[in-house]
Design a protein that fits this description.
The chain has 533 residues and is mostly helical. The protein contains 28 helices and no strands. The protein folds into four domains: 1-155; 168-321, no CATH class; 322-423, no CATH class; 440-533, no CATH class. One of its GO terms (molecular function) is ubiquitin-protein transferase inhibitor activity.
């Protein structure tokens, strides 16, 4: 069906409308006549003509191009609303016209409105089940010559209408569309080339799209209702993450927050990851192929929901979060606190979020690790959470290195120390060693080695106390918890002074790390010589 685009040769608006009328008449006759090959050719010519008009109007290379585009688009809509147009014609045109009409959406607000009307007309006259894959395909293949933020708006609104119009298999069909919408919105929202008004229009359509799914949920029986509510929850979390990329969209975040309780989501369940895992199991089950279609933004959105609540009381109220109870529970429960720290890595590691979000996230982390949390550890084992804790701590080191805000760097370092202190002694050294070996920053390695030296000093004091206090010494478990004084320390020093790449460390690039390693080695030797190790 590919053909050369029909050029606009500078003829008058009347001639262009005449050309449109001729192309529409040709399409109608060939489709009604049952000539498949001829109808394909006619539709292809019509689409190429429309693409030429939309390209010219967006680039504004010709005088009056925008006015011409509005007239052409209006002519298409009038044709589709004609009582004499049969269903066969509408069905044939439904495969290509929604995409072409959406390309006009960025020309002007008036063209956006007509584009909406054209797609709505197709949804009225065609099967919603047929329109869903057509709209998804159009969403998944935006043309580089169009303004993507406005191009997708009529298509997303069309999906909202389709969702509400579906008669059966709602969950299965909406489940196909959601990843497509998230993918395209993610691509657009992370671009910096769009005006605020364009993104606001896009997010308005997305929020309405989520609300349309909520409307469908209310009409369904228990089984399918539970699945669709879980899917809605995952969708809202992903959109919340994308909305958060821009700091000015509190009003959208509040509307999304109001949907969270409907999906059975709690604030504590979000920050620990429990709610996300539960919803994912309901929606995806054991299907790994389905799992790959859902974005990692789900976990980012879950973490950000609590950060939004930290920033704005009205968000906590809209989401029905008892924020005080959440923070108290995390302070008192080491396991849930470790889970929360692991979830926060998604915020710390995001390259798209404004630094403001990371600042509030660090503040939240400082709050839940405040007080003497080490006394609440008991004999808990955090082995299950070592990977996520390491990732969060590694992301925190990036904030310490790269944040321009001095206060944020200072608070991030304090949070790093508190999280390390929250990890049982038996696993703390392993985490520190992994952070040192996986850091490319000489300054950060030096800071971490200093923390190791501090841990060794603390253990030395503890051992001295044990020797003086027979009651404590009898507690063998306490004795076993002092694990930093071992040959592993010398191996750690050697890894800095004799890197795996071979040869000595490169100076002066690694001077901070080398100096800190030598200081640590000197501390060990002096302590051993004094007989205090």
């Amino acid at each position: 069906m590919s053909a050369e685009k029909t050029p606009i040769d500078g003829s008058s608006s009347a001639n262009t409308l005449l050309q449109l009328h001729q192309l529409l008449t040709s399409c109608s006759k060939s489709i009604s006549g049952g000539n498949f090959s001829q109808s394909q050719t006619s539709v292809s010519k019509l689409i190429n003509f429309l693409d030429s008009v939309s390209d010219a109007s967006i680039s504004e290379l010709e005088p009056g191009a925008k006015e011409n585009a509005f007239k052409i688009l209006s002519g298409i809509y009038e044709f589709l609303c004609s009582p004499s147009l049969n269903q066969e014609n509408i069905d044939a045109l439904s495969f290509e016209l929604p995409k072409s009409a959406s390309k006009f959406a960025g020309v002007s607000p008036q063209c956006l409105e007509i584009s909406d009307n054209i797609i709505h007309r197709f949804i009225e006259k065609c099967s919603p089940r047929d329109m869903l894959p057509i709209l998804c395909e159009a969403l998944d293949s935006p043309n580089k010559t169009v303004q993507a933020a406005t191009y997708v708006c009529p298509l997303i609104s069309g999906l909202s209408d389709v969702f509400i119009s579906l008669q059966r298999r709602h969950f299965e069909q909406i489940k196909v569309a959601v990843p497509v919408v998230v993918k395209v919105v993610k691509a657009i929202s992370t671009e910096s080339d769009y005006e605020d008004t364009e993104l606001e229009t896009l997010f308005e359509r997305i929020v309405v799209n989520a609300l349309s799914i909520q409307t469908v949920c209310r009409k369904l029986e228990d089984g399918e209702n539970e699945k669709l509510r879980a899917l809605l929850g995952l969708y809202v979390l992903q959109i919340l993450a994308l909305v958060s990329v821009s700091r000015n969209y509190l009003h959208f975040a509040l509307r999304l927050a109001s949907i969270l309780p409907y999906s059975g989501i709690s604030g504590l369940g979000l920050i620990t990851g429990y709610s996300v895992d539960t919803m994912s199991h309901i929606v995806i089950g054991e299907d790994e192929e389905d799992c790959s279609s859902f974005s990692s933004h789900i976990y980012l959105g879950a973490s950000l929901s609590v950060v939004w609540a930290q920033k704005h009381d009205e968000f906590a109220q809209a989401a029905k979060f008892d924020f005080g109870a959440i923070k108290t529970e995390l302070q008192n429960n080491p396991t849930k606190r470790w889970q929360a720290v692991g979830m926060l890595k998604h915020v710390f590691a995001s390259i798209d979020l404004p630094w403001e979000f990371k600042r509030y996230t660090v503040d939240f982390l400082l709050y839940i690790t405040s007080g003497d949390i080490s006394n609440k550890l008991g004999h808990n084992d955090c082995s299950l959470y070592m990977t996520s804790l390491f990732s969060s701590l590694q992301a925190l080191t990036m904030i310490i290195i790269y944040a321009s805000d001095t206060v944020l760097r200072k608070n991030a370092f304090e949070a790093l120390k508190r999280v390390l202190g929250d990890i049982p002694n038996s696993q703390r050294f392993d985490i520190l060693k992994a952070l040192i070996k996986n850091s490319d920053s000489s300054s950060m390695v030096a800071i971490l080695l200093d923390l190791v030296r501090g841990e060794m000093h603390r253990e030395r004091i503890l051992r001295t106390s044990l020797q003086k206090n027979e009651a404590l010494e009898a507690d063998s478990k306490t004795c076993q918890s002092t694990l930093f004084w071992s040959t592993s320390i010398l191996e750690l020093v050697e890894s800095v002074l004799r890197p795996d790449t071979g040869g000595p460390p490169i100076l002066p690039d690694n001077s901070d790390a080398v100096l800190s390693a030598l200081n640590l080695y000197r501390f060990v030797l002096m302590t051993e010589a004094a007989g205090k190790a």
